[in-house]
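Q: My collaborator sent me two sequences in one message, no labels, and asked for predicted structures for both. Can we handle them in order? The first one she listed is below.
A: Yes, handling them in the order given. First sequence, followed by its structure tokens:
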Amino acid sequence: MANQKERLLTEFAPISTQEWMDKITADLKGADFTKKLVWRTNEGFNVNPFYRREDLEGLTTPHVMPAEYPYVRSTRMDNDWLIRQDINVVDLSAANAKALDILGKGITSLGFKLKKDQINVESLSVLLKDIFPEAIELNFVCCISVAAKLAGVLTEYFAQQGADVAQCKGSIAFDPFKKQLVRGISNPQWVTHCKALLDASKGLPGFRVLTVNALNLSNAGAYIYQELGYALAWGAELLDKLTGEGYSIEEVTSRIKFVFGIGSNYFMEMAKFRAARWLWAEIVGAYGEQYRGQVAKIHQQAVTSTWNKTIFDAHVNLLRTQTEAMSASLAGVDSLTVQPFDITYQESDDFSERIARNQQLLLKEECHFDKVIDPAAGSYYVEYLTNSIAAEAWKLFLAVDEEGGFASAVEAGSVQQAINASNSKRHAAVAARKEIFLGTNQFPNFTEVAAGKIKVEDEGPHTCGCGEATIEKLNFSRGASDFEALRLSTERSGKEIKVFMLTIGNLAMRLARSQFSSNFFACAGYKVIDNLGFKTVQEGVDAALDAHADIIVLCSSDDEYAEFAPEAFKYLDGRTQFVVAGAPACMDDLKAIGINNFINVKSNVLETLRGFNQVLGIN
């Protein structure tokens, strides 16, 4: 009986790909399959609506077990990642108290952001009091100009504490290309600085002190293949230059930490981390067979990206960070930082930090994501994505290599230019609602005001004396920033802009277009006045004027616009702004009589609303 149950699926006849295609084509009723269902990604390849085993034929993705070179599935035989939280150290004692508190709440990796004057043994003695360095991963962020000094101070502190440095794990976030990428400042001496840090870190064998900070690329709006391709070129540059200075492959790779951002594209982000393990192993393995073991394993920290986070309807950020945390943890990263949902507008508070911690704890304790290694393996879709992202990232890696390497590319500004161009394209997609930000450019909270809660101020120009900006730097404007600026300008103007829905005619069409228009104008912070319907155009216009409407939106069916629109426009006689919701066949005729404002699914929402703000005197 048991054997019969095991063979249950054999009772069903196999279905061929062609049979699936025939069924889908029939259901499309003449619509083009490619245009309707095939998705062209920003990464440069197509994604089909379904995948089968035959789609894996010819893919170069290695078929290996976890912890087997080239580690596409995992670098280890478990999936237990470290839960990291960073502390901005203002007061040393307060930071120590906070660190001890969150260690008791599930944190297994601590990060400290230090100021220059805090880098001494005395400060560390206060900051790390009662924290056992052998039991917790310790990570430090400081100005890159004092990173080597920090390594020496840490070594001295551990010696004073009698710590077993062989058991101490952590990192110093030294990014040798931060000056060029973030500040636009040339840094030709980066190799010298790396050497000084490596030498100062000899007493910290478990600390990774060279950071490939691809998080900055993600936060600047890079596409996934760009983030990965440039990160690989970055790591290869470190390997090439430092081995040329006499350091061994093992010495360099054991010191490199890759920090990636996590975006909201769930499966593609998962595939990115798998591809990163694979390609980095191939790069290290190219130095010889002897390097196709432990030394070729990448160390990945993942951080939820800020590019897709919003100020308005900020609790939606919780949904974004949750799916991002799922992508990274299922993909097998080594450590994970979930940024609090309020990071876009204030110094995070205890509540938002607790929720961010608990998001990871839930994935471990409730979902058991740490119990399964690479659960996506074998998925036709994820394997295809892994291969495709790897292929596009590898092309970019080779292109950077032909340009002279990553250092030359960032000094020339070509990396920054490419990513800024991607940022601009993504902003354009957000403006036209081709990329959706729930609560910002689609389905906004109509009544929300946000100016009062914004407490994070612009840092202003960098003044550490590290040089003048001569190179194009990365643009870190978030995807939602344009819509937020638009809505905040309305809010800060003190004006209450009223948009009146003149609904008339066909019930289904007027309701649908009223809902669309309400969401459209609410993105600018306008007050929307919706209506169930009017018997006549004159009745609707009179009601709008009685309500002191600044904009009247005619909502009806395409067929009825030929009658209703001219009548409403003539009766209104320029007393307020007039808009037609839709793109009716009679649009040219309506434009001929002076009706110029139309909104529909093809409208550039941002530019349209900016135009209304200008007309209505809002700067």
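Q: And the one she listed second?
A: Here it is, processed independently of the first:
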Amino acid sequence: MSEEVTYADLEFQDSSKRKNIHELDTVGIKVYTTLKIEMGNLNKLQNFNEELQRNISLQLIHNMNNSKRIMDLSNTLQEIATKLCRELYKRESRHKCKPCPKTWMWHEDSCYILIDNYETWQESVMFCSAQNASLLTIKNKSVLEFIKSKRLRGYWLGLSDKKHLRTYQNVDETIISSNWLTGNRNAVNDMMYCGYIDTGYIYYADCTSRMKFICEKLADPVKIESTLMSEMPDGKYS
């Protein structure tokens, strides 16, 4: 009788084991199925993310191309406005498109003004500095020809001061000179000599002597609207 009970117990245990194994298999299948679904979702999400990044990259490239086109167009308009303004300036030196203050002359990228007050060299430097400008320097052929055309007589230049009096030199030689001032000098006295232009030559005199002078500074960009809108329908200029 006890053996039958033992056998029944064993059958019951085997049945329980099979049931547990079946349940584990079912759970395993569910976990596998869930993981497979989640992996599929993850792959879809990754694909979506990659597609989104591609679209963003394409949009950025498109925006950069548009920005470059806009910049190129802006530069072209600026060049046209500048050329037109130069023509208008030749006809009327006080034309409102001029990128220089009212009483200043315009040449290439710079503005110039002749000051007929008599000042020491140092006072001339200080006056120009107050106008956000500096004493005239002649560093290229174009500026040289522009200045020669003015036939200036007795104007201080932005040449470095000297401790010894120098003989005069032809103004044409100055564009290859290393003597042009690179910064304002604060300690110029009556023992030093400064350069000035007189017609086609450069001379030196005591820096405390009083002469006229000419200032220069960078011109502002030409305003497109003040140039392109300046010509009236009847051919006259505002």
